[in-house]
Specification:
Radius of gyration: 13 Å
Strand content: under 5%
CATH topology: TerB-like
Shape: globular
Number of helices: 7
Order of helices and strands: HHHHHHH
Helix content: over 70%
Length: 129
């Protein structure tokens, strides 16, 4: 698996924040899921500081999907992991609305991730609940 650097993690975390906020509810549970993503790539780091930076980027950027370029350059394993984290955040409230589905379709298209595999990840996670 390729490694993601700190800047990439912050950018991808901003995407996760965006996914969390798209239904206009940004819960503590969603924040914890985003912190889990950060923790899975960066050891010995201030999670709150990274999350705060990601939230600032998400607030100020209407070019959020630029962060998909970071993801696009990575291995299929990393893409799969990121898609899984995105779905975890989206389905954490046990519902998926059209905006969330649309966001995932757009992200998958931009990072060249197969729709079929995206749907399988979503199904697997929904069945875990």
């Amino acid at each position: 698996m390729n490694k993601l650097d700190k800047e990439s993690i912050i950018g991808i975390s901003a995407l996760l924040v965006h996914a969390a906020k798209i239904d206009e509810i940004y819960s503590g549970h969603e924040k914890d899921l985003i912190k889990n993503f950060i923790k899975s790539y960066l050891k010995e780091i201030d999670l709150n500081e990274i999350l705060k930076k990601a939230e600032e980027i998400e607030n100020s950027s209407n070019q959020l999907l630029n962060y998909t370029n970071i993801i696009k350059k990575n291995s299929i394993e990393i893409k799969k992991d990121i898609i899984e984290h995105l779905w975890r955040v989206i389905i954490s409230d046990k519902t998926v609305d059209q905006y969330e589905s649309n966001l995932m379709r757009r992200i998958c298209g931009l990072i060249y991730f197969p729709d079929k595999e995206c749907a399988e990840i979503k199904l697997k996670l929904m069945n875990e609940k």
